[in-house]
Design a protein that fits this description.
Structural class: mainly alpha
Radius of gyration: 22 Å
Number of helices: 7
Order of helices and strands: HHHHHHH
Distance between the termini: 81 Å
Length: about 130
Amino acid sequence: MTRRLLEDQGPITWRQFREAFYKKYFPDSVRRQKVGEFIRLEQGDMTVAQYEAKFTELSRFSPQLIATEEEKALKFQDGLKPYLKNKISILKLGVYSEVVDRALIAEKDNEELHQYREQQRKRNRSDGAPW
């Protein structure tokens, strides 16, 4: 049905196709729910990669909320875990891909630091053990 409606109008734009697709496969209630999820989205227990995937998925339902590259970058940054957000915000990045890249690097660095400290703690315990 959607195909016939669109074909009768001649060539269509991507925007027209997307609107018709969303109307057919995503009822208004689902779209509103996805917009709400996007507005409330935070990294929480997700890795940066998982958060980025969810952000990308939900942002498709709310393009008006991230109309510019800077708005998209800031929205993503604001949802990061506090320790990552603090590291990234001082860089004042306005490009989404750069924010994601720096967040991935900061997350990896933090994990490496955590592993190093854990090794040091174990080593210190074994050094003090009586033989």
